[in-house]
Amino acid sequence: MERVLIADDHPMVRDGLRTVIAVAFDQCELFEASSLEEAAAIIEREGDFDLVLLDLNMPGVVGFSGLVELRERFPSVPVVIVSAAQERGLARAALAAGAAGFVPKSLRRGAIVDALKTVLAGNFYAPEMDEIEAAEMIEDADIQRRLDSLTPQQKVVLKLVVAGKLNKQIAYDLDVSMTTVKAHVSAILSKLQVFSRTQAVILVNKVKFGQDS
């Protein structure tokens, strides 16, 4: 690990994390930010980081809004939520929102290091998450990345496919030609990395795509 950004509005927390990382990861270059705006500015200026450790509750941040903003602006940078809150389901919600890990501030130093190493190895980390849960989170995140690659119009078409509509019904509903619908469906299958409409429906149902509409 070469570059880490610690974003927390409490200086003592930043000092503690800096000490843990400096001892565990030799010659790691550390950056600090006391606000989300400062964190974003540092990433913009300095480029990619191996990890961003982001406090869940900072001024001006509501829920996972800070996490979502960083993930949207810097999708290649893994963000680990570091939080004093440990409500049930919070860690899973953080991972679902795009975090690479969820590290409680109450963890002992060795456990924090182990958690960061887990994330650096390309895996998700959350307290007490077993292997099955971790595998499910990785699969869900992969499916979501594929869905995010679809254009808005392709997502509309996919929702109609999930609803069980045939190409001619989709063409009628969207007032487009059959050729256009077929082109959209072909592109959707390619981006989702599946070979049939049925496979596409099964895949996206795992993340409940279209079920909120």
UniProtKB/TrEMBL annotation:
Write down the PROSITE patterns for this protein, in alphabetical order.
HTH_LUXR_1, HTH_LUXR_2, RESPONSE_REGULATORY
List the InterPro entries. Answer: CheY-like_superfamily (IPR011006), EvgA-like (IPR051015), NreC/VraR/RcsB-like_REC (IPR058245), Sig_transdc_resp-reg_C-effctor (IPR016032), Sig_transdc_resp-reg_receiver (IPR001789), Tscrpt_reg_LuxR_C (IPR000792), WH-like_DNA-bd_sf (IPR036388)
Question: Mind listing the UniProt keywords for this protein, alphabetically?
Answer: DNA-binding, Phosphoprotein
Where in this protein does the record say 4-aspartylphosphate is found? 55
Domain HTH luxR-type: start-end pairs: 143-208
- Write down the Gene3D superfamilies for this protein, in alphabetical order: 3.40.50.2300, Winged helix-like DNA-binding domain superfamily/Winged helix DNA-binding domain
Response regulatory domain residues are 3-120
Q: Which PANTHER family match?
A: HTH-TYPE TRANSCRIPTIONAL REGULATOR YHJB-RELATED
**Identification of the protein by name:** Response regulator transcription factor
Its organism's taxonomic lineage begins at:
Bacteria, Pseudomonadati, Pseudomonadota, Alphaproteobacteria, Sphingomonadales
